[in-house]
């Protein structure tokens, strides 16, 4: 092959000089709309499958309600936010919660080792709020431009149509920030026993905005009142031999018998800013916020008490987007969140249709009035304002008018040099992974090591050695046990140079016990 054939381009034939980073205002600033390479890449990715979801295709769901405590921890919720869904004590907001796996197709087994989707639609009095997260509190990558490549590597091989371990680890070996998530997913936490006994998390960082226009960073979490239960590989295989949809069955049956699952919703809050005292960026979704420094503060409870009347009309056609926020909850500059905000709603318009928000499962329960018209499968026409002839704004002929802005508008100061950046805070890529390994119980570590050993045996030597190098830098025992189990030369792995363009991790991290 020629060098030109080796060079990555977009579909316009333009050379792609940086396929790893969104263009943003400074290292931590917001992404910009002229990210053409990202937009072309992600919008094509959103259209790769029809009609099922590209990711999170296998799922089940239930209706329920959320009751706000009116407090965040011991403080009035209004100290942090003006969102009525969180501030009005005792108020009950209808919700629809869809659980899912990520990589497998619509009929794949629910015992798959995979993150679980935890997507909630709150039908609030101020319009819908979608909180689209997972059961685990972190993710594999921290920049949305990498998402199509990650999913391609994790999906079946385009030639053999099989999920291959070498493809998964070939991607991971180049992204040390993925080690933390890999350690979670390859442990029993990668196979929740069912949907009722797993946590939920926003994964991404948001902002809460109070009535005075002041903001704090926040993460949302859901702690199951039923407790957390996970499966080993052997337990999952035993279940899968009898039932590929055990978690759907479990949720449906529990609700039918009146055993309603419940979660306590919590937030972690942090001052909005750079946080030089931390060795990780709080906007990096491959990192957890230490709960001893940023405790989980209860804000309300979520209960599921009704199964859908029709799977296709509700569960399958439900559409979520991370950009669907209510006043008092705002975006952070988390690059995964900003990329998802474009991609999710774009996917729904393609998958369900331009008028997906007119479907009952997606429509808000509060009044709406827009000037949007027509499009495929329009069920009705929005007729806001007194004059139905006016479908534009502004107008002097009794059309719709802009709403008054509630409270003080949040206007953060943004400045920086426009460019493509990777985080300079990468030491925690290894530190948090090692900490996670050491906090697992013995049986969890045993299952983790066994799963990784089996995977490593299916990889070529260069991938094996780099992955052992990574694991050893997270924790010496971690790397040694995987190497010994898979018959990999640990000394040879340790002699590898650091990844190109990255500093070597501090080897002292491997022994911080």
UniProtKB/TrEMBL annotation:
Composition bias type Polar residues, residue spans: 7-23
Alphabetic keyword roster: Heme, Hydrogen peroxide, Iron, Metal-binding, Oxidoreductase, Peroxidase
Active-site residues, as the UniProt record annotates them: 56, 134
Disulfide bond keyword on record: no
Class of enzymatic activity (EC top level): oxidoreductase
Enzyme nomenclature, EC number: 1.11.1.6
Needed cofactors: heme
Ranges for domain Catalase core: 9-401
Chain sites annotated for binding heme: 344
Entries under InterPro entries matching the protein: Catalase, Catalase_AS, Catalase_clade1/3, Catalase_core, Catalase_immune_responsive, Catalase_sf
Region (Disordered): 1-25, 493-513
Single biological process term from Gene Ontology: response to hydrogen peroxide
GO cellular component: cytoplasm
Molecular-function GO term, any one: catalase activity
Family recorded in the similarity comment: Belongs to the catalase family.
Name by which UniProt lists this protein: Catalase
Species name: Halopseudomonas xinjiangensis
Lineage of producing organism: Bacteria, Pseudomonadati, Pseudomonadota, Gammaproteobacteria, Pseudomonadales
